[in-house]
Amino acid sequence: FAPSRNPDMWSAAVLSDVARLTKPQGTAATFSVASAVRENIEAAGFSWHKSPGFGRKKHMLRAELTTLQKRVNDKPWFAPPERAEQGKVAVVGAGIASAHLFSILSGSGWSVDIIDAVGPAAGASGNPAGLVMPRLDADTGPAALFYRDAFFRAVDVYRNLESTAFNACGGRLKIEQVKAEKLFQTRIWPDDALRHEDGWLHVRDAGVLAPAEAVRSLIDESSVRVALATNLRRDGKHWFIDTDASEALGPYTAVVIASGAGTTKTLNDMPMQPSLGQIDWFDGPAIDEIATDGSYIAPYADGIMTGATYTSYTDGPVEPLDENTKSNKRAAADLTGREMGQHLGSRAALRATTPDRHPIAGPVYSGNAADTYAGLRKGLKVDYPPASYLHGLYVLSGLGSRGLVTAPILGDHVAALITGGVSPLSREAAHLVHPGRFLIRALKRNEAVTA
């Protein structure tokens, strides 16, 4: 790491970025005391002094950020919010995303209530099993990197559950040779994570999760309040949640709306639509791994789970349909090359989907952001102010059909926003899932907006 061997690491540009990402009076330390390091650290706004080193190192540098640079944000509408005050957090919804968020916050010493009209894993997270398979993009853009990181974070979380909820069986995806070659050319996946053979892309770390079991292993059920949230209001520095039982739950210093397809009942300006999905399971013979080609088959107990349908939903009961069972059965027969055994069961649930098929995770705008950034309609490049948010209000929803994969990393991200910690998302990935992106996109396209 010496500057003489790795000068780019110690460049003025890199150390300027270090300063940009450092809080006032933040500290830094390095074993290098070379003059180039001292000069560039000082130029970045750090004061420094030499200290005794370790081992063979006679000296080291200790530094403190004392001179703040002007922090330029080329996308101020996505500026992160101030952290929430320490206190109790309410998470509305009790699915897999809520459960992971609960686990992270409570593990960091925060008190958390989970509020749900039915209880843990009542929606799509109540399916008996679901896939943990990656989305694969043949490029190196923010979405490709986000979904890769989300997949590995999910696998890590589920493998370390104190339960048998995760079956790390591996999986394979039908893919054309040309697309597979483009995917490997990106070099964003570890060499041993993916393997292409006979028209199938094999995913080593894929698996099947029992989400309801995972939810219960991540939460403390004594922290679950079974109630329908009917209204959200702020009184001074605190949030309160009114319920259908005429209760006023609170006070809370932060609230996260994570109620899946029901999110729009609380935050009606979130552009989400419910999508009806159905899975079915059949008697054996059992299979060893996941296989997907549009539809999928996966190991489940001693048989096969298959699905999932993807149809629009407007109103009415959420229940399995015979036509969907027949569709799933045909798709499974195509994938296995044989007829299915006895039909053992079905389950239907609603997913929350977004127009761009990416999830929503982050803070909620306050005031009239449409007016604040109205200049974007005309492409005006002015010094826009940083985003103004409803302090302590966040949304974690719109996870669509990849909720089991994206829930853990998005829970980490929202927890970091609440606590002032470090998000695992890159800046570009945080913008990709920011709740305000739809408004900003509409302004730039000079389209009508709802908020």
SSE blueprint and pairings:
Elements (H helix, E strand, L loop, with lengths): L11 H9 L6 E4 L4 H9 L2 E7 L6 E7 L22 E5 L3 H12 L3 E6 L13 E3 L9 H18 L6 E2 L3 E4 L2 H10 L7 E4 L2 E4 L3 E3 L1 H8 L5 E3 L2 E7 L2 E6 L4 E5 L1 E4 L15 E10 L7 E4 L1 E6 L2 E5 L3 E2 L9 H15 L6 E11 L6 E6 L3 H4 L16 E9 L5 H17 L7 H7 L3 H8 L7
Parallel strand pairs: 4-5, 4-16, 5-12, 8-18, 16-24
Antiparallel strand pairs: 1-3, 2-3, 6-11, 7-11, 8-10, 9-10, 13-14, 14-15, 17-20, 17-21, 17-22, 18-19, 19-20, 23-24
Helix pairs in contact: 3-6, 3-9, 4-9
How would you briefly describe this protein structure?
With 451 residues, the chain is α+β, with helices and mostly antiparallel strands. The protein is 26% helix and 28% strand.
How would you state the average pLDDT, rounded? 94
Strand content: 25-35%
- The assembly state of the depicted protein chains is single chain
For the sheet with most strands, the description reads: 9 strands, mixed
Number of strands: 24
Low-confidence sequence ranges: none
Figure out the total of helices: 11
Outline = globular
Alpha-beta classification: alpha+beta
User: What distance lies between the first and last C-alpha atoms, to the nearest angstrom?
Assistant: 49 Å
Helical content, roughly? 25-40%
Instruction: Return Rg in Å.
Output: 24 Å
